[in-house]
Task: inverse folding
């Protein structure tokens, strides 16, 4: 029998075969694109913990826009965002779609060195053109076809604030003129918070905030069943239940547990609950290395101490007790607690209680 390819995708930024649980957001965005300029869901800021599925949501929203014939410009991550938009992304798009560009390209070809695309593009759209005017031109072209322009930016927290501010002013200008544009950004909650506090990020502050929450138990279970079935195999009902329990609604874990369980089943037709169960030690280890370690890297010592003090409990911790364990005042404990909630590392769990917000974080903290 030929071995079938593993259909699970346990890597960051990789769109899964079966996307579950984000339907409402995608539909709302669809409606916003239909509704026309002024619809609030046309400017969205997606936040969520590492591995919660922000990039996947961004991909899906882009796909919705493309299906409607919109131009989608994914901005580069990190430094150089605006320079690349100005020198490469927009000129290339305009050279391809601007009816006027064809004309100029033909005339230009005779005088400059021929044969390189970049030469043709720079002749068509000289570098002196600003991001604002190129963006406006692209929007105009899109509108002439009854569509628009969607700008997307992943890892918003890593974008240089000056670039964001300049981009914002170009985008805001188009918004004010009621043009067919949309923006979706995605990033880690704390980074987004910091960015919003900066000058020049007003448009981001007005954007609709969408905080990605864990998937529901049945969503994870169904995703597992469908992913396996579409790849020509079967997961038993108990196996799917067990997988969902281990994943705790966390999208990355859905993929990771699925991937490992698929392997554990070897050549068997059916993936069983036992196959799923064997993955647990490895899953905890991967989470620790790929999610918890990076997530805790930027966390100040005082907050780490608080987390470690919480890890002594098997379930939700009493905030009063944690403060007592640390030997700090209740007020001070509360300050630290709020910071950790902002980071989405812990979450309120009823009156006076908090719990860790990432699956297996407790195990990770106990280890070291
Ligand atoms: N809705 C979903 N349904 C099924 N699997 C998903 C879903 N969303 C994300 N995943 C899976 O979860 C993993 C993490 O997704 P993604 O890379 O989008 O997370 P992220 O929030 O962007 O993480 P990071 O903060 O590291 O950028 C990937 O393996 C992806 O395939
Ligand atoms: Mg991502």
Result:
């Amino acid at each position: 029998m030929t071995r079938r390819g593993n259909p699970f995708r346990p890597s960051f930024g990789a769109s899964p075969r079966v996307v579950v649980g984000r339907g409402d957001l995608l539909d709302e965005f669809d409606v916003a694109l239909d509704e026309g300029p002024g619809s609030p869901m046309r400017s969205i800021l997606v936040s969520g913990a590492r591995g919660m599925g922000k990039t996947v949501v961004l991909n899906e929203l882009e796909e919705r826009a493309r299906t409607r014939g919109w131009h989608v410009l994914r901005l580069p991550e990190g430094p150089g965002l605006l320079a690349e938009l100005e020198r490469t992304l927009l000129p290339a798009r305009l050279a391809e779609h601007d009816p006027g560009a064809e004309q100029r390209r033909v005339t230009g070809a005779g005088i400059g060195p021929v044969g390189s695309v970049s030469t043709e593009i720079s002749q068509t759209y000289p570098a002196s053109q600003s991001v604002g005017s190129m963006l406006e031109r692209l929007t105009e072209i899109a509108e002439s076809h009854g569509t628009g322009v969607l700008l997307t930016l992943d890892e918003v927290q890593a974008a240089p604030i000056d670039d964001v501010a300049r981009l914002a002013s170009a985008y805001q200008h188009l918004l004010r003129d009621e043009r067919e544009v949309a923006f979706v950004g995605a990033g880690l909650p704390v980074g987004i918070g910091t960015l919003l506090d900066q000058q020049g990020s007003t448009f981001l502050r007005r954007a609709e905030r969408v905080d990605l929450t864990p998937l529901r138990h049945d969503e994870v279970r169904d995703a597992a069943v469908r992913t396996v079935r579409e790849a020509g195999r079967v997961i038993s009902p108990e196996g799917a239940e067990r997988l969902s329990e281990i994943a705790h609604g966390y999208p990355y874990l859905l993929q990771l547990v699925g991937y490992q369980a698929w392997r554990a089943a070897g050549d068997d037709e059916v993936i069983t609950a036992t196959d799923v169960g064997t993955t647990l030690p490895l899953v905890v280890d991967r989470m620790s290395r790929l999610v918890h370690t990076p997530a805790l890297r930027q966390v100040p010592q005082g907050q780490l101490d608080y987390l470690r003090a919480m890890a002594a409990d098997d379930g939700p911790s009493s905030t009063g007790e944690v403060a007592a364990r640390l030997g700090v005042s209740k007020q001070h404990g509360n300050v630290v607690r709020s910071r950790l909630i902002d980071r989405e590392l812990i979450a309120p769990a009823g009156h006076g209680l908090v719990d860790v917000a990432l699956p297996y974080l407790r195990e990770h903290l106990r280890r070291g």
User: Anything to note?
Assistant: Strands lie at 43-47, 71-75, 149-153, 181-187, 208-211, 234-235, 270-271, 317-318, 346-348, 353-356. Confidence is low (pLDDT under 50) at residues 106-119.
